[in-house]
């Protein structure tokens, strides 16, 4: 039981860290033609 | 004159176009007042004074030549094809006197097609009542056309209109603007590829294809190859064209169109006069704000307490029901505490957006924009800056994006830079919890101190934005043109369905948008607070137990034990158990004291462990910086994590205090129980609370806002300046406040 608790807890931690990195540090580029100016689609 | 003439009537929906058609042709048609009644081509004959017959076509209503629907496209198609049997000799553009600015966009586009066009200003009977005056000769001169003031309701101006139609050959066909100016190289290539075609007509054909594909229009000239820009690029050029046209229209109307609210009559005008009055207008706006803040505090207390208690018991339930271990602790102390820290504010945020939605739906918000324009001018802003600033009370990100409709770059830049001072909804949780902790619950003339404090903070944000704008207006040396026009909608009873949707949508976006970040940060923080590498962390049990044995409990623990014991004794007295005998009473008190001492010891161990955990070490590192502001290392950690988003502050503290406490209490109680170890007094007192409130009022604690400012200004210079200035200013103000109050 302790093993599974540790595994699940650290998986949750990994998910949280991954989410924060994606949110603030590394963002995938948006599609071409839409990120350059005020095309009013954002 | 022998030849019959073909006349096309065109205009925005709801300008009374069909009424003008009826007056000219005498045909009896039904006229409605809902948008888009004219969806098919209608024709009639009008006899002009000298016997000339005008074949009049009533074209479907359209806002511009950039069509998006089939019926709009029908109107534009007729105007583009000079060989078509319906191609008009003259276009009569019908406009509504109250919405002239919007209507003139279509007029200038038609004029640029080099078709003779005249302007009819309909609903002229409303002018006196609305305090509107139009300088017709000047307008004719600026637009190089003839203008007819018409009232189909009173049947005035129709004969003059007929005379103008009859003399249409005298009209100038000069365009209003040079379309090539929006992108000279592109239009140069276009001109070379199609030397015999009118440039603006080509442009409209090309963009018709962009906006409305089903018609599949072909460029004149058939198979000639011409490298066409992508749809996105063409759209961008279209936006540029629209901006240029509105700049031109603003310039024209500034000289020719006046609205004097003092001269306006009628119920709406009467209400407008009061709501936009120099003194009463601001007073009413101030009273409305006060009522909103009062309601936020008074109505949301019960649901907030219920939510707080629910999360406290949920945490307790998880700890007792699930098998002990790291996952159970993570759920109880990290996840539930973190989520609880944001869900608790749903009632207050919902109430805030409920009131904002009512103000918008009723039409009052436009009056606020107009009212505030007077206030904005001396600060280098315009009434248009009010919309982003008001939006900033929800979130600075859409607010910064909303500055795109401000034509002047200087005004836009200033608005972008000062908008983050406005109290956004992310600050609300921080304000609410700190106010509840440090501002007493009393009332002043029926108004709670807490509501007043919240309102002062909102005003403080607004004042900071204004003062910064004033300074920036003097510092920034950017040449700019200034003008302001706003369309005042009619007053109406709010549509409750719309209000409901706004509240649900805004609350949902707040909870889901911020909730995910808070949850992720809460999980990371819990791990950092529950793990440590130092010997002190690993041997916390032994070290604290030995210290307590040698030196006794800390002052806080002693007070905790004494207070709880007193309460227990009082409870026994009230229950009447003392008659059982002094020995039983002493035994009972003894047992209770041992229980309390065990709890206090456990709490001291948790606290010691937290202090020596990874997060504790990080907090201690920055403590010297935040100590002069009255904060401890735990608040320091919350300040850092809330740089991601302000609302993370409460979730962070809830998680940290939850890790550092064995008691399953509500967030507010946990924070209230925190003690400043140096001074032995509550950590959240008036001085530290005010200092914290002021720090959050002025600090740029939002990564997403910085990112959006970078995108909108296309440079890191402005967001970095913003960050540096706001954070330094916030630190200094908070420092000053704490040093004065403590």
How would you sum up this structure, described in words?
The complex is a heterodimer of chains A (42) and B (742). Chain A is mostly helical and 42 residues long. Helices cover 57% and strands 0% of the residues of chain A. Chain A has one helix and no strands. The N and C termini of chain A lie far apart (47 Å). By secondary structure, chain B is α/β, with parallel strands linked by helices. Chain B folds into three domains: 1-265, Rossmann fold (3-Layer(aba) Sandwich); 270-531 and 613-742, no CATH class; 550-610. Chain B is 61% helix and 7% strand. Chain B has 31 helices and twelve strands. In chain B, the strands form four sheets. A six-stranded mixed β-sheet of chain B has the order 2-3-1-4-5-7, with helices on both faces. In chain B, helix 3 links the parallel strand 4 (90-96) and strand 5. The termini of chain B are far apart. Residues 28-39 and 210-217 of chain B have low confidence and may be disordered. Classes of the chains: A mainly alpha (42), B alpha/beta (742). Chain A binds chain B through residues 1-2, 4-6, 8-9, 12-13, 15-17, 19-20, 23-24, 33-34, 37-40, 42, and chain B through 230, 232, 235-236, 239, 323, 325-328, 330, 335, 401, 404, 516-517, 519-521, 523-524, 527, 644, 703.
Percent helix range of chain A: 55-70%
Number of strands of chain A: 0
Based on helices, strands and strand pairing, what is the structural class of chain A?
A: mainly alpha
Approximate strand percentage of chain B: 5-15%
**Can you tell me the overall shape of chain B?**
elongated
- Measure the end-to-end span of chain A: 47 Å
How much strand of chain A? under 5%
* Radius of gyration of chain A, CA atoms, in whole angstroms: 18 Å
- Give the biggest sheet of chain B: 6 strands, mixed
Tally the helices of chain B: 31
Structural class of chain B: alpha/beta
**Percentage of residues in helical conformation of chain B:** 55-70%
Can you tell me the residue ranges of chain B where pLDDT is under 50 for at least 5 consecutive residues?
A: 28-39, 210-217
What's the average pLDDT of chain B? 81
Give the overall silhouette of chain A: rod-shaped
Main beta sheet strand tally, sense and closure of chain A: none
